[in-house]
Amino acid sequence: AAKDEGRNRFHYFTASMQRYAKHRMRLIQDLRHAIVNNEFELFYQPIVSLQQESKLKAEALIRWRHPKRGLVSPIEFITVAEETGLIIEIGNWVFQQAARQSALWRDRFGVEVQISINKSPVQFRDEGESFESWAALLKTLNLSNNNICIEITEGLLLDGNSAISSKLAQYRQSGIQVSLDDFGTGYSSLAYLKKFEIDYLKIDQSFTRNLDSNSDDFTLCEAIIVMAHKLGMKVIAEGVETDYQRKVLSDAGCDYGQGYLFSRPVPVEEFEQAFLYTTNKVIEKTTA
Ligand code: C2E
Ligand code: MG
Ligand code: MG
Ligand code: MG
């Protein structure tokens, strides 16, 4: 009986592995199609100043308008895009789209909105990727380089690859800013914070989430803010959902907040309606 069970289990695993392999192959095919057919779209989520300063920022978050499946979340396809290298093309598209959007908002609304884009480690490791082509587009658009910010994660900095650090330095020297995303969830080696020049630390939402109830998380947030400021960085808290969290963070000196309290990530037109027709709306909402 034990033998039969074992065999059944084996069959069960192969069947599910086959299903997975099939699903994955389908996804890869669809992704290739999506690139050619322009099925991606950027949603924008405001990054709101918690202190006096009023300059508006936004994070661009990719969505996939799948012809059959509807709106697909990046969680479902970024990893496969990275594994297959398709992220290179997708990432270039994201950058171009975000840069054009910032230039468009400047021209249409007279507002400079710094747009953050998530840049995959795979893009950094790609030898063919050239900083020059990015710089050239910004120049063509006559866009100030600090209107673009790149979000990276801790893993990239621990890669130990010197080509990566020189690339990062190149971006930063050009005026493009750098954010460290999901801070506190990675390897938690703090040594790289002095080695790399970073403009913003983004406190991961797992710390912000429990600010209401858990005082340890508050202590951690406070300590991160103090440390970041001493090292010359600004702090963005992710996942701000309640007014209480906003207040606690703002009192602790946190520079910016991002989260559902201010807005979910929304399509361009919605972002314009909510934040650009009356630029002051964000500020009114946060000081109410
Ligand atoms: P991330 O860069 O850490 O982005 C923040 C995520 O938190 C977004 O999920 C956002 O919708 C969500 N979020 C924002 N505010 C709140 C809140 O108050 N509460 C909660 N529960 N969640 C909130 P999203 O859009 O599903 O993106 C997931 C991840 O996918 C991103 O995490 C990022 O790592 C990746 N991603 C998104 N767009 C791109 C892209 O263009 N390129 C690459 N390489 N990765 C991307
Ligand atoms: Mg991000
Ligand atoms: Mg994040
Ligand atoms: Mg995240």
TrEMBL record:
<protein>
    <submittedName>
        <fullName>Diguanylate cyclase/phosphodiesterase with PAS/PAC sensor(S)</fullName>
    </submittedName>
</protein>
<feature type="domain" description="EAL">
    <location>
        <begin position="24"/>
        <end position="279"/>
    </location>
</feature>
